[in-house]
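ligand=magnesium ion
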Amino acid sequence: MGVWDALGLVLAQEVKTDREYPPFDRSTRDGYAVRSGEVKPGAQLKCVGEIKAGDTVTQVLASGACVQIMTGAAVPVGADAVVMIEHTQREGDLVRFERAVQAGQNIVPQGSEARAGQTILKPGMRLGFAELALAAQVGATQLQCAKRPRVAILSTGDEVVLIDEQPGPFQIRNSNSVSLAAQVRIAGGEPVVLGNAADRVEDLGEKIERGLNEDALVLTGGVSMGKYDLVESVLKALGAEFFFDAVAIRPGKPAVFAICKGKPVFGLPGNPVSAMVTFQLFVTPTIDLLNGAESHPLPLVEARLAQALNERPGLTHFLPARIEWRDAEPQVSALKWQGSGDIAALAGANCFLVVPAEREKIASGERVSVLLRKDVV
Ligand code: AMP
Ligand code: MG
């Protein structure tokens, strides 16, 4: 896999450095390379040349001399510091120094970032832009990556129509298929969209069985207490073993998880926001596991609550919210929303405000937990 195509994939090999980094003593400033012992306020040294980035450097800096040097260039043997050009005055060949300099200042020593042959990327790491740049830096332009797990997506409900169909007055478009496919991609999986199953045992059974051919199956809808919520009973008939069949959170309480024919199966609630939240909480880490990715904790941070909250206790709430840097600290405000069908509220959110189950009122100014929205933005 070429490094250009590996964004978001999980590395399946070690990547080692091909040489020391930096490969030479590198100047981090534009200025003058000097022997630090010779530089004091008012001292003058003769400038004997210049070194720009990329130049081959063989000369040794003589005592009583300095050399003009650019950022990224190799520091000559003999020099042990670089004085920023801003702290000097130049007259012809003479450079006058305004202040003293310490040995090592403005130089990154050879090998200080990495030794030659050192492992810098490990199997299980997810490749973001910095990891890809690191691979490119050491010449690892081809990378072995884990195959993206294939995640089948199946929505359910007699009211659901394809997104390019005109819904009848009491029908809705299958927006869950789109959000789930996007979330699968963001989590590192390959979505396999199976469409929609009617609320009928035969149709559900047939489509679930098709989904079980993939590495994992995510269903939405049909897991609540309604007469036509048939997902659990159909899964049971197929031999599913359930690990949970409800979660003490809102939105997302009806979510279920089972293993069926050796495959992980999630039944997420049909309500769009519930499906999105439970996906991030439960499916994203599962895709990491299937991908051989090292596990990482949920992206939880702390912020100051901007406006007081009043929620029903008993369930941990995940409220669509915005976190922003204000008055020198992160502040979070819950957004107005009409409940778990309100996709528009989540579309303007960048996080979920976490209200613990035992809390009813939270005063403004209290510190609260915030789950960052895992997304491309
Ligand atoms: P359910 O979990 O099946 O009871 O559905 C709960 C709510 O989510 C209902 O209002 C459904 O119309 C809605 N819903 C179910 N499936 C989808 C879907 N695929 N896309 C958008 N909304 C859905
Ligand atoms: Mg339904």
